[in-house]
């Protein structure tokens, strides 16, 4: 389940548990619950893998992430943990596409997104360039905090955010991706990867 990329201190990029939504639906920033049993199982596995303490925990405010945060904190002393809701860790806002099936979205709209991948606003929502900017800001802040404390930092977030971190770590904040370059894997629901905090971002 866990992929260790570098030595500690580390950034834990944790994806929420299985959301309660039909397969093939675009859901971005929709407020969705996650499967409760899967959330509990994921929290238990994550608690067993995490160190005893960490510099901070940041969580997307979307319900499926908050569920996992709350389940995890039941295993820990909440007074000993610095935990924040962070809007920068939300999934991409797909605007009017949210709640629609991907195969029901107009092919010309999807083609326009592919043609101008970083700047197109899917469903008049958020362009990828804006998402990369907010994730970059959150990443820089968390890395500074973790390095200063020499402790791990935990994010409970979404696949899109985790792919943004991959891109930023590989290419930096200034280079924008083409659609065919947006290929970094993301962990499965309720799973995670870790990255070293040592490189400045």
Structure description:
There is one protein chain. The chain is of the alpha/beta class and 201 residues long. It is built from five helices and six strands. It has helices at 36-49, 63-73, 107-115, 128-149, 159-171; strands spanning 2-4, 10-15, 56-59, 83-85, 153-157, 192-196. The chain has a six-stranded mixed β-sheet with strand order 1-6-2-5-3-4. The two termini are 26 Å apart.
Shape: globular
How many distinct helices?
5
Low-confidence stretches: 1-6
What does the largest sheet look like?
6 strands, mixed
Gyration radius, in Å: 17 Å
Structural class: alpha/beta
Spatial order of strands in the largest sheet: 1-6-2-5-3-4
What quaternary form is this? Answer: single chain
Distance between the termini: 26 Å
Strand content: 5-15%
Q: State the helical fraction.
A: 25-40%
Please count the beta strands (DSSP E, at least 2 residues each): 6
Average pLDDT number:
92
Helix and strand string, N-terminal first? EEHEHEHHEHE
Short recap of the structure:
The chain is about 35% helix and about 15% strand. The protein is an alpha/beta fold and about 200 residues long. It has a 6-stranded mixed beta sheet with strand order 1-6-2-5-3-4.
Topology:
Elements: E1 2-4, E2 10-15, H1 36-49, E3 56-59, H2 63-73, E4 83-85, H3 107-115, H4 128-149, E5 153-157, H5 159-171, E6 192-196
Parallel strand pairs: 1-6, 2-5, 3-4, 3-5
Antiparallel strand pairs: 2-6
Helix pairs in contact: 1-2, 4-5
């Amino acid at each position: 389940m866990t992929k260790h990329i570098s030595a500690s201190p580390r950034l834990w990029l944790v994806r929420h548990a299985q959301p309660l939504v039909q397969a093939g639906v675009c859901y971005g920033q929709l407020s969705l619950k996650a499967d409760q049993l899967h959330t509990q199982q994921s929290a238990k596995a994550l608690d067993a893998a995490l160190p005893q303490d960490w510099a901070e925990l940041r969580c997307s405010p979307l319900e499926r992430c908050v569920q996992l945060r709350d389940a995890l904190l039941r295993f820990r002393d909440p007074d000993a943990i610095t935990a924040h809701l962070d809007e920068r860790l939300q999934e991409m806002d797909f605007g009017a596409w949210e709640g629609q099936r991907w195969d029901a979205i107009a092919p010309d709209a999807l083609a326009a997104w592919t043609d101008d991948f970083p700047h197109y606003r899917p469903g008049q929502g958020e362009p990828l360039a804006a998402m990369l900017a907010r994730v970059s800001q959150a990443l820089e802040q968390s890395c500074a905090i973790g390095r200063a404390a020499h402790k791990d930092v935990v994010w409970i977030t979404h696949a899109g955010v985790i792919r943004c971190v991959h891109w930023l770590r590989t290419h930096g904040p200034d280079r924008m991706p083409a659609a065919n370059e947006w290929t970094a894997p993301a962990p499965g629901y309720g799973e995670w990867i870790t990255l070293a905090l040592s490189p400045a971002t």
